[in-house]
Design a protein that fits this description.
Blueprint (H helix, E strand, L loop, with lengths): L5 E4 L3 H12 L4 E4 L3 H10 L5 E3 L3 H6 L6 E4 L5 H10 L8 E4 L5 H13 L3 E8 L1 H7 L2 E5 L2 H14 L2 E2 L2 E2 L9 H29 L4 H12 L6 H11 L21 H12 L5 H14 L1 H8 L13 H34 L5 H7 L10 H11 L10 H23 L5 H13 L6 H12 L24
Parallel strand pairs: 1-2, 1-4, 2-3, 4-5, 5-6
Antiparallel strand pairs: 6-7, 8-9
Helix pairs in contact: 1-6, 8-11, 8-12, 8-14, 9-10, 12-18, 14-17, 14-18, 15-16
Bound molecules: nicotinamide 8-bromo-adenine dinucleotide phosphate.
């Protein structure tokens, strides 16, 4: 019977939960997984749901109503191409393929052209929210032709998270735009997580217990820092390790990995000559964390001050709040700046207010202050940098002193705060009418006759000096 409204390939954690979400909105869903036992077990575990399990891809495709809507939720990279290759001979022109994984946007652009040339319709959609989001309502960032989006809209809008009644999904733009915006979302997620970790490290050095930290983060989550990541951090500090009876977080090894999206974001920023120093610091912090053995060895050789901070706890909470919030504003300013640059480069015409609005719910970076970002871009769509929106400018002006004090305190105690520092460095550089690049230009002219502009002459007029010869 060819009557399923939707089909999904790839029944790992994301796929299974998305299927249950789609089904719960009244759609009949066909499912297929390369390893058949996974399909069988999944369908058997949900006998009361409108699910159609298929043992073969042929059977799966035949079970779908026309035009077929097939979502691929497999590991990004080669597996996505492998699934598409095997689908092509089975589908009809006009059928829709949606790649919902964390695909690199350039792969999405290639697939968009490849499938478009064959007469199929393709959507590259970033999905955020992890397992729980997929089940209850993720944020979805679809890219591809607007006409294809119109066909998919009812299903995607029904499964997405809702904020103030608005679904956290919007057609982002053509081609790879959806996966691109998901990549930046993940880069920002890296920054948010690292900033929280740096706050934690400072509090630890000031003698806060995990229980106290649970309270601090709970309080923060009831204020202007309210966000999913602050909320789960509060819960993490309250979690007791059943083996030792102490805080679980202190038993977890301090090494983190970094997968594709953080690295891709950095590479794209360099290609576009956009500074994303907070995200950069976050990715590098993960790399340094993974070098556990080298760090342990170096800790015995390289000296620094005792990692202790003596401060009034209540006052420190306020200062770290300000440093964290200010750094977070910078991280978003940088990520959104990169989207702006890429949108111009690709002619995508991306709407930052709509992107910020869908990030308010469902996704990992959902946060109260995304309302303010949405408002800032609604008020001024051509905003040159988020820092300059009145709301954020006022906050940065208010927070900057405490931000400096926290970084100074940490630095004097030898506590690494690479993302806090990178954020402040960006803030101070961006607001400097004069930077020392005059000396840099002199150096370049000295060794390479690269020429320079003068402060007292019109821009574009180039000068060269015959510098003295240096021997040796
Ligand atoms: P995984 O990324 O772990 O992928 C596992 C799935 O891919 C299984 O269904 C597996 O089938 C299938 N698969 C592989 Br691997 N190679 C295949 C091939 N050559 N042909 C057909 N199927 C193949 O699953 P996930 O964690 O659910 O994530 C799915 C996508 O969503 C990924 O792109 C991920 O980056 C993205 N994402 C994940 C999260 C999250 O929180 N996990 C959040 C947001 C986005 P098998 O059972 O036969 O091995």
């Amino acid at each position: 019977m060819s009557n399923s409204d939707f089909g999904l390939i790839g029944l790992a954690v994301m796929g299974q939960n998305l299927v249950l979400n789609v089904e719960s909105r009244g759609f009949q869903v066909s499912v297929y997984n390369r390893t058949t036992s996974v399909t069988d077990e999944f369908v058997a575990a949900h006998p009361d749901k409108k699910l159609v399990g298929s043992k073969s891809l042929e059977e799966f495709v035949q079970s779908l109503a026309s035009p077929r809507k097939v979502m691929i939720m497999v590991k990004a990279g080669g597996p996505v191409d492998a699934v598409i290759e095997s689908l092509i001979p089975l589908l009809d022109k006009g059928d829709i393929i949606i790649d919902g994984g964390n695909s690199l946007y350039t792969d999405t652009e290639r697939r968009d052209k490849w499938l478009g040339d064959l007469g199929f319709r393709f959507i590259g959609a970033g999905v955020s929210g992890g397992e729980e989001g997929a089940r209850k309502g993720p944020a979805i960032m679809p890219g591809g032709p607007a006409s294809t989006w119109d066909v998919m809209k009812p299903i995607f809008e029904s499964i997405a998270a809702k904020v103030d009644g608005e679904p956290c999904v919007v057609h982002i733009g053509p081609g790879g735009a959806g996966h691109y915006v998901k990549m930046i979302h993940n880069g920002i997620e890296y920054g948010d997580m690292q900033l929280i970790c740096e706050a934690y490290n400072i509090f630890k050095a000031a003698g806060f217990t995990s229980a106290e930290l649970g309270t601090v983060f709970t309080d923060w989550n009831n204020g202007d820092l309210e966000s999913y990541l602050i909320q789960i951090t509060a819960e993490i500090f309250k979690q007791v390790d059943p083996e030792t009876g102490g805080p679980l977080v202190e038993m977890i090894l301090d090494t983190a990995g970094q997968k594709g999206t953080g690295k891709w974001t950095i590479m794209n920023a360099v290609e576009n000559a956009v500074v994303i120093s907070t995200i950069n610091a976050a990715v590098e912090a993960r790399i340094l964390s993974s070098m556990k053995d080298k760090r342990v060895a170096a800790s015995k050789e390289l000296h620094g001050p005792k990692a202790e901070i003596s401060a009034d706890k209540a006052a420190l909470v306020k200062k770290v709040h300000d440093a964290l919030f200010a750094s977070k504003i910078i991280s978003y300013a940088q990520g959104l700046d990169l989207i702006t640059a890429m949108s111009a480069e690709k002619g995508w015409n991306l709407d930052l207010s709509k992107i910020a609005a869908i990030w308010r719910g469902g996704c990992i970076i959902r946060a109260r202050f995304l309302n303010d970002i949405t408002d800032a871009y609604r008020a001024e769509p051509g905003l040159s940098n988020l820092m300059l929106a009145p709301f954020f400018k006022n906050l940065l002006n208010e927070f900057q002193q405490n931000w400096r004090e926290v970084i100074s305190m940490a630095t004097l105690a030898g506590i690494p705060v690479p993302a806090f520092s990178a954020s402040l460095g960006y803030y101070d550089s961006y607001r400097s009418a004069v930077l020392p690049a005059n000396l840099l230009q002199a150096q370049r002219d000295f060794f390479g006759a690269h020429t320079y502009e003068r402060t007292d002459k019109p821009r574009g007029e180039m000068f060269h000096t015959d510098w003295p010869e240096v021997i040796g």
